[in-house]
Design the sequence.
């Protein structure tokens, strides 16, 4: 599992780096970003995994979200993978911005021609953590997950499908109920096939309804002026209803005036990293 360093920049007293490796799950070269806080020079640190949204690479989060100062302050390593396999030469992979390249939806595809490469769920929950723990000064028992939009969906399902694995979870404008929205329906039909019962394994609202495990403390921020909220792509009310019924603690904050962009995430990133630090550094 050799890593090739692509870039390294001193940032907030630590280092923002990007690495490339050959992924066994995705059968292609993958890049991921890792922020190493100053504390990582002397101690093992917890890891927060960040899952990005549609069309993103590992670059968007590290250049726009403003996470590094808070990560340095709280001694947290942040790992930000890409959002899909790249350059697999699958017919149609580059035709749509919301399916294929840049749109892996954090599922393990079961349908041809996607099933060989499009295994982002296995990549972010299994292969990548093993790779990170083998190569960086991490405490493998202290990990958490966060993300935006498609990546918020990813963060929620990773936490709900793996009780106890992640100490905390948060999301910005997550796709909360993909089975019921156009983005999710398109992606799930393509990657998982027409049998909708197979989609339930990757829908946070469905998973929350059957969750049994250690208490999950969920923080969700949602911009009130988000065009995808009004277009019924995100459906947070469905998830919140189930969580309140199941007594899963959710802090849901509707932020007036904010949209779906990184300007919104930048504005509340410190709160999210503080939320993660509370559970990671406990």
Sequence:
């Amino acid at each position: 599992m050799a890593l090739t360093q692509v870039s390294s920049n001193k940032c907030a007293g630590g280092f923002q780096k990007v690495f490339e490796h050959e992924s066994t799950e995705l059968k292609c070269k993958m890049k991921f970003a890792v922020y190493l806080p100053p504390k990582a020079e002397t101690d093992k640190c917890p890891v927060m995994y960040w899952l990005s949204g549609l069309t993103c690479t590992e670059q968007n989060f590290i250049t726009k979200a403003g996470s590094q100062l808070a990560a340095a302050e709280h001694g947290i390593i942040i790992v930000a993978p890409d959002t899909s396999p790249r350059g697999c030469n699958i017919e149609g992979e580059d035709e749509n911005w919301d399916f294929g390249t840049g749109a892996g939806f954090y599922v393990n595809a079961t349908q041809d021609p996607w099933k060989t490469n499009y295994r982002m769920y296995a990549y972010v929950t299994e292969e990548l953590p093993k790779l990170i723990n083998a190569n960086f000064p991490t405490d493998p028992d202290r990990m958490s997950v966060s993300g935006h939009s498609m990546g918020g969906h990813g963060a929620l399902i990773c936490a709900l499908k793996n009780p106890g694995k992640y100490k905390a979870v948060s999301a910005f404008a997550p796709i909360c109920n993909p089975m019921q929205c156009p983005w999710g329906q398109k992606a799930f039909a393509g990657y998982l096939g027409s049998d909708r019962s197979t989609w339930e394994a990757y829908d946070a609202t469905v998973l929350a309804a059957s969750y049994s495990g250690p208490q999950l403390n969920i923080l969700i921020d949602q911009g009130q002026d988000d065009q995808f909220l009004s277009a019924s792509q995100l459906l947070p009310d469905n998830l919140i209803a189930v969580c309140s019924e199941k007594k899963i603690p959710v802090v849901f904050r509707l932020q007036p005036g904010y949209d779906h962009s990184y300007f919104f995430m930048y504005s509340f990133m410190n709160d999210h990293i503080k939320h993660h630090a509370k559970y990671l550094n406990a």
